[in-house]
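[Q] Does anyone have a clean structure-token version of this?
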Amino acid sequence: MCSRESKLHDSPLAVVAELILLLSVILVAAKIGGEVSERYLKVPPVLGELGVGILISPFLLGGIHWFGGGAIFELPQDGGGLPVEPQLFFIAQLAAVVLLFEAGLETDREQFMKYVRPATAVAAGGVILPFVMGFGATVLLGFASMDSIDEMIPALFVGAVMTATSVGITARVLADIRRLDSPEGVTVLAGAVVDDVLGIIILAIVVGISEEGEVTAGSIALIFLKAVGFWLGLLVVGSLVSKYISRGVLWFKSAGGALVLALALAFIASAVAEIYFGLAMIIGAYTMGLALSSTELKHQVEDSMRSVNNFLVPIFFVVIGMQVDFTAFGAGDTSLASAIVFAVVLTLFAVISKLVGAGVPALFVGFNRVGATRIALGMLPRGEVALIIAGIGLTSGVIGKDIFGVVIVMTVVTTVVAPVFLIPAFRGGSGLKSGIVEAEIASGVVEEDLAGE
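[A] Here you go.
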């Protein structure tokens, strides 16, 4: 591909043509990776998409200057710290919004509200323990110190990264195995939403400390009220007016009208969540889908939505893979051996903290060991959420490339491992305790064949 300098002299159409070519490379790579994973390796296609993303990234094959020409994926000079073109990153984020909007549509709202309380317990455990273990590992291995606030900040950032849960990856896997609407699936998605709210509060506190050396209780309360208020407000108000929204959208009889307007609602909710309330866009999209999940609009657009997802969503996972830079591993002032030890310890802590932090509370809110294991595995992948938090720390100078590289290793391992174990975990019987299983079957919430598997 041409260099970034020469692109400045290209016509707008030439720039667009190059982006289309890059997008076609991503799409072909995604389908090859997904096909190989599903057909030959018998693992979820998302793993293949992540894998090919790593391979074609600017840090590996995509950065090679083939046959004396330019690299396919060069590191953008004006990408704001992103290792991919901002336009491709935009398409990937658009895909994430569409993915979570569909996940919300496919979720039973009554089921969601029923499990939001246990999900809160799961999310709290899945935030507190990972934060503590991430903070402790960073200090104990000498990558941060308790001597002063400034020296403590890297540990706070690592702790914040450890709290992350990639709802996009888990939602994709649960959708592939048709378990989005199961009690465990709903609890994981609801827990991931609460996890995101809590994670935003922690990140805001850490950023406030790093920038000003302190943070006030008032600012924390404001962040909490904005995040929780928007989420609950959109869910409650959206649910109350969902039938009217559905009728209004379905009034349009032109081809594709319902799908386009439904997506527009998802985009509005995601943008408002990010810009005005500090919540991730995917949370706004998921909540809007959840509000519309029991309407006629959902049934009218669900088939078309799957087609849109089949095109867009693989782009999201490939671009996530393209952001992984293993060359950052062991960079900075620390030795490679120290970085390897830190990466191994942090990765083990990342797995243990989510399995225990999210799994143990699930045992006390109606799930048996099978269900608790499914929930814990669903909360395990860090994915793009961890990369975003780590990127904030790197670009702000709070963490160095050495810690950033370690975080990348932890993120990749948890993101890859979770789907591998999550699918087999759903092949057993019901995840609810026996007394609850009978009550659920009697009410028709859990299908008998699922409970009796």
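[Q] Thanks! Anything notable?
[A] The longest helix spans residues 217-250.
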